[in-house]
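Here is one chain, start to finish.
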Amino acid sequence: MKTEDPSHIRLTTAKYLAKSQSIPFTPIWSSANASELIEIHSGWNYKFDAIVLYLLAKSLLRMPEMNASWDEKEEKIIFHDDLNLGISLNTKDDNVVVARIAEPYRMNLRELDKIVIGLAEKAKLGKIHEKDIFPLPNIVLNNVGMMDIEGSVPIPLPWNALMLTTFRIKKIVVADQDQDFSIGVLPMMNIVLTFDHRLFDGMRAAKFLTLFKQKLENPRF
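Its structure:
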């Protein structure tokens, strides 16, 4: 047996995740047809994270009430005017850091893709700075599609209103429920929305996840 001191990132993450256990984070999930996402990703050569982040920002424009946070001291809900989205990035030592992207809905996909690529490179090199993190984003995209994982229930950090996690795209046999229930093989992607139940009822969270799924299946740029 041996012991080692955790890295600063690991120690900080452990502290905040322990605090998250006292918050009523609740998961709901769905599955999206990723056919058009794959076509855009391969045809336009944009990072998958950038495409999904763009569609998440557009979904939040449709439902701005999701851009909220809980004020622990005052026990009030804060609705934000500014949109700060977080994106989970891998570091060189296989830890995760959440970088902030401000006002992504003001960017086109090309601009957002450039920012995502830059942040991912900085994370790999260990060069993420405070300005890349603060102010802390209350909404986070967590894409684990590069791993052979089809589902999990990620734990958001205490200041997160919600975290959207996208998983590996896998071809499976499905029935078309919108037409004649014909059987086909489609590339499907599982999505988990973990949300702070103090901020939203399940109905509102489900409505947002449905909207986000529609954006993924019918992306417009």
